[in-house]
Write a structure and sequence with these properties.
Helix content of chain B: 55-70%
Shape of chain B: globular
Structural class of chain A: mainly alpha
Oligomer: heterodimer
Number of strands of chain B: 11
Largest sheet of chain A: none
Strand content of chain B: 5-15%
Order of helices and strands of chain A: HHHH
CATH topology of one domain in chain A: de novo design (two linked rop proteins)
Shape of chain A: elongated
Structural class of chain B: alpha+beta
Number of domains of chain B: 4
Number of strands of chain A: 0
Largest interface: A-B, 67 and 74 residues
């Protein structure tokens, strides 16, 4: 019995690892352009998180008004830049619309007001 | 089942070789099918180890004593519940367990790795496969758990008695799982470095897998302390034993890492430093494996002693060379593009905290290795014991606790004098008031009083952080609890971290209480006699015994009374004159205010086959203090020799555990996606392989 089980295991392993060579599905390595875009996307999401943290810090009184404005503006510029590189959207208004929508979604999650704390 | 286990291990080894080679060759020659196939081989490796583990468990359940490992670590008398413990009770089984964990977490981490890591993933797979290959090699050629005996015994030797404790169901697996878990962030970061991807793409995977390994290791350490407290019978929970130390050291470095990775996430700094920390943690985890498996350092954890030391030493040194050669090769590309604005900033406090953690690690490492060097250089055997570690590490750990309060109050980048004053006033006042109050009520020991003050300072700093954030949200309409929850939810890594900090403060209470205010007394009592210590009278009522094929067990039935010390004023005075805090009473007739509060049964077993004694302390635990009775010996004249101690605040040591776990889970809990996936033009060459 153990030998049979071992043989089944070995055959299963062979089938699983051989399938990509003989199966119908065709594979291609992930392209450089895709990786670059994914990298930009991840960077953009990290910047959103930083914006959320900055807004949270400001709401809690950890940041002065001037520091908050400066950090938030820097991060929004960086987010717009990565969005441009990622999507190829060149129109500033289109970029701003998408950024604003995603950042406000983040605010909804963290319950921080759009003014970043001015009203809190 | 031995055949199935051995076949599964051989198959797993072949799959590991295939995964390592196939992943890299597939990537290099651009053959997607081979890369995908190699990745599947890694998944299948986990299945083979699972099959081998299943075969061993099956052998234990069916008392298959033809397998040497089963015969060495179980017998027909063993409670079946301990099959799980017996599985990793010896070297071979514990190595199989480590490989099982490694193969499963490797498969999971690769399966769910972000696509953007596709360039480095083949290297990550190769690194994980090579490490698995090492364990397969050891299990197949050097320490097989499926080795067969020529003559099959009728019964096995049984399980090591020290392992027959509830803590053993979780302490060793967590500890081993935590140590091997460090492999995952290490493999991802090393893979990225080899592939030449220098950005922060690996940061989330390294952070999450690093925190999981750190949390698991931390939980394992705490459970180990609980196990030692209740079963080892030396009256403590942490002895700076080499095996404890080798698990603590990677935990310390990973603690530094999970702080500095936050700086990398938020400020884009410390990238090189974080890679170095992961390398150090990984090599220290290998050191742990080496010392645990027959390394040169003597430890109370002798159940895993073996001659595998040299193999693990070679593997550890290879890991060291690989990790730091890779680091040095890629170092110029890892430099952060940002500098620190000010030393009065959160990132600076993280850096100082990192140095202090590394200092504690270095002191501990020196304490572990010094006996080895001494033996080699001077042929003199020495041992480094607890006082060295306490004296050197104690003050540094206290500074780390202070920084736990200071760091969160500092803003990122730089703090102004005004903000420092604003944020530090209340925590400092609370800390100082605590110290003054403790002095005023007559609490002794300046270091302990200062430490309590530090704990109060840090707790109020966290409280202030929460208060400010919660109040701001409350003013916008949320009720208090919702406001607090939204604050925590808005930045889970940060606030989960604060909950972990609270757990450390709770642990600190226990450590201070037990280290500075413990009262202890050793005495031998006849039936009917009592021992009086502080507010307790412990009366020896009777003795019980039982003889089983595997052990001779004896226990003392004892009644615990709460007393009014005024009733015993004269005896206490005499005892104090002798320099003792307690005394023995031959006449156990109760005084007017004696109140029976508990019955305890300290237990002592001798396991003939192992020539080993095992102890279950009698413990009455309250949030204020533990009454802790260790049965040293049952003497032939009818007396029982006991060591009684009162361990103030010991309960808090174990209470810290749930807070630690909750905080870690909150810090790890993923945030929901906020993204609207951008609309992209279809690019012809974009289709990816599966997985």
């Amino acid at each position: 019995m153990p030998i049979i089980l071992g043989t089944i295991l070995a055959l299963a392993a062979i089938v699983v690892i051989a399938y990509p060579f003989f199966g119908r599905k065709r594979y291609r390595l992930v392209s450089e352009s895709y990786l670059t875009r994914e990298s930009h996307r991840a960077e953009r999401l990290r910047i959103y998180r930083k914006i959320s943290d900055v807004e949270s810090d400001f709401a809690s009184g950890d940041l002065t008004d001037a520091d908050y404005q400066q950090q938030r503006d820097q991060l929004r510029v960086a987010a717009a830049e990565t969005l441009r590189e990622e999507t190829g959207i060149t129109t500033a208004s289109e970029r701003d619309e998408q950024l604003e929508m995603e950042i406000s979604r983040l605010r909804d999650q963290t319950s921080i007001s759009p003014e970043g704390g001015d009203t809190l | 089942m031995a055949d199935l286990g051995a076949m599964a291990l051989l198959l797993g080894m072949a799959l590991s070789i295939y995964a390592a080679v196939g992943a890299i060759v597939g990537e290099k020659i651009g053959m997607a099918e081979l890369a995908v196939s190699a990745r599947r081989a890694l998944y299948m490796t986990a299945l083979t180890v699972l099959a081998a583990s299943g075969a061993l468990v099956n052998a234990f359940v069916n008392n298959d004593f033809s397998i040497k490992y089963v015969a060495d670590h179980s017998n027909t008398l063993m409670d079946r519940a301990f099959v799980w413990v017996a599985f990793y009770a010896g070297n071979e089984g514990s190595l199989l367990y480590i490989l099982l964990v490694l193969s499963i977490i490797s498969a999971i981490s690769i399966r769910f790795a972000p696509r953007r890591l596709a360039r480095s993933l083949p290297w990550t797979i190769a690194i994980l496969s090579v490490i698995q290959l090492f364990y397969f090699g050891v299990l197949i050629f050097v320490a097989s758990p499926f080795e067969l005996l020529d003559i099959v015994p009728l019964d096995g030797r049984g399980i090591n008695p020290l392992l027959t404790h509830p803590g053993m169901f979780s302490h060793p697996p967590l500890l081993m799982g935590g140590l091997i878990g460090i492999t995952i962030p290490f493999a991802f970061v090393s893979g990225a470095l080899i592939a030449g991807t220098y950005g922060d793409d690996w940061i989330d995977v390294a952070r999450v897998s690093g925190i999981i390994a750190w949390g698991v290791l931390g939980a394992g350490l705490l459970l180990g302390a609980w196990w030692a407290y209740t079963i080892l019978g030396w009256g403590g929970y942490w002895s700076w034993d080499p095996i404890e130390n080798v698990a603590l050291m990677p935990w310390l470095v990973m603690t530094a890492f999970i702080h500095s990775i936050m700086v990398q996430k938020r400020r884009g700094m410390f990238r090189m430093w974080n890679v170095a920390l992961l390398n150090i943690a990984f090599v220290l985890a290998q050191l742990g494996m080496f010392i645990n498996r027959g390394g040169p350092v003597v430890s109370v954890h002798s159940f895993a002693a073996s001659t595998l030391g040299i193999i693990f030493l070679i593997f550890m040194l290879s890991s060291l060379v690989f990790a730091f050669a890779l680091f040095l090769w890629r170092m110029p590309k890892l430099k952060s593009d940002r500098a620190m604005d000010s030393f009065m900033s959160r990132e600076a406090s993280c850096l100082i905290n990192n140095f202090l953690f590394l200092a504690v690690m270095a002191v501990t490492l020196w304490g572990v290795l010094f006996p080895v060097f001494s033996d080699m250089a001077r042929d003199i055997s020495v041992s480094v014991s607890a006082p060295y570690f306490n004296r050197v590490n104690g003050p540094v750990l206290l500074i780390i606790v202070i920084l736990m309060g200071v760091g969160p109050l500092l803003p990122w980048r730089k703090a102004s004098a005004r903000s420092l004053k604003q944020w530090f006033v209340w925590p400092t006042v609370v800390g100082v008031v605590t110290i003054v109050a403790l002095v005023a009520i007559g609490v002794q020991r300046p270091v302990a009083i200062f430490s309590f003050g530090v704990i109060a300072f840090v707790a109020s700093a966290i409280g202030e952080e929460w208060w400010r954030g919660t109040a701001a949200r409350h003013r916008s309409g949320d009720n208090w609890f919702t406001a607090w929850w939204r604050l925590v939810n808005g930045n889970r890594p940060r606030h989960g971290g604060y909950i972990v900090h609270i757990s450390i403060l709770i642990l600190g209470l226990g450590i201070i209480g037990t280290n500075f205010y413990q009262q202890r007394m050793d005495e031998a009592l006849y039936v009917g006699e009592s021992l009086v210590l502080d507010n307790y009278r412990i009366e020896y009522i009777d003795r019980g015994s039982s003889e089983r094929p595997d052990r001779i067990a004896q226990w003392a039935e004892m009644s615990v009374y709460r007393i009014d010390p005024a009733d015993y004023a004269q005896e206490f005075e005499t005892a104090r004159a002798r320099g003792s805090s307690g005394f023995k009473l031959e006449d156990s007739s109760a005084r007017p205010n004696d109140e029976l509060i508990d019955q305890i049964e300290p237990w002592h077993g001798f396991y003939v086959d192992f020539n080993m004694a095992s102890v279950r302390s009698g413990i009455r635990s309250t949030i204020v203090e533990d009454l802790y009775v260790i049965p040293r010996d049952f003497l032939t004249d009818g007396r029982v020799s006991i060591a009684v101690s009162i361990n103030p605040l010991a309960w808090w040591l174990w209470t810290s555990g749930p807070f630690f776990l909750i905080g870690t889970m909150i810090a790890l809990w993923p945030q929901a996606s906020v993204e609207r996936r951008p609309v992209r033009k279809k690019v012809p060459d974009e289709s990816e392989g599966d997985g």
